TrEMBL record:
Gene from which this protein is expressed: Kcnmb1
This protein's name: KCMB1 protein
Organism annotation: Motacilla alba
InterPro entries in alphabetical order: K_chnl_Ca-activ_BK_bsu
Keyword annotations: Glycoprotein, Ion channel, Ion transport, Membrane, Transmembrane, Transmembrane helix, Transport
Recorded GO MF terms: calcium-activated potassium channel activity; potassium channel regulator activity
Length: 200
């Protein structure tokens, strides 16, 4: 009687462990799919792939400009902010080009190097832009990214999705997938050993 209970409990444990492993594998596959349709296209679409050194030539704050709400929006003048323009000397080619914060900054407003968050307070925005301008004037040389193919003549300060960030995004689903497969393999080995013991 006790032996039957132990066998039943063992089977229940194996079933639960097998469900856990299959669940982990399924979740990791869903995470792979989500990363593949969200982050990977932005990473592959970016042409600013080569890192170089930029030297600040001038950092000026122009009059207030208006940030478009979204592409194709009729009401574009919704968020005025000071326009920071940073021009740098690209070490790789010696050209004078305009610097943008990220790829998204160029798409949102090609006239300004920095586009603040729309939800920020206007005073905070002005203070932040002045701080960024002063930092550029203090730190004249810094790493930046440019397009080696020459499609884009401007440069960006940082990539939205760098290679390290992409690898880090794939790390967690990979660990989950590996753990799920390991659980399934261990359950199958346990079942095989149980059947072999019972047969002997």
């Amino acid at each position: 009687m006790l032996g039957k209970k132990l066998v039943t409990a063992q089977k229940r444990g194996e079933t639960r462990a097998l469900c856990l492993g299959l669940g982990m594998v399924a979740c990791s596959v869903m995470m792979y799919f989500f990363i593949g349709i969200t982050i990977v296209p932005f990473f592959t679409k970016s042409v600013w792939t080569t890192e170089t050194v930029c030297k600040v030539l001038k950092a000026n704050i122009k009059d207030k400009v208006f940030c478009p709400n979204s592409k194709g929006s009729e009401d574009e003048e919704i968020f005025p902010y000071p326009c920071l323009q940073v021009w740098v000397n690209l070490t790789a080619s010696g050209q004078e080009v305009m610097l943008y914060q990220t790829e998204d900054t160029l798409e949102r407003n090609p006239k300004c190097s920095y586009v603040p968050d729309k939800l920020e307070n206007s005073k905070e925005v002005k203070a932040r832009i002045e701080t960024i301008a002063s930092n550029f004037k203090k730190h004249q040389t810094f790493p930046c990214y440019y397009d080696p193919g020459g499609t884009q003549t401007n440069v960006i300060l940082s990539r939205l999705y760098p290679a390290k960030g992409l690898l880090f995004a794939f790390l967690w689903p990979t660990l989950m997938f590996t753990g799920g497969c390991l659980i399934i393999v261990l359950v199958k080995i346990s079942q095989y050993v149980s059947v072999l013991s019972a047969w002997q």
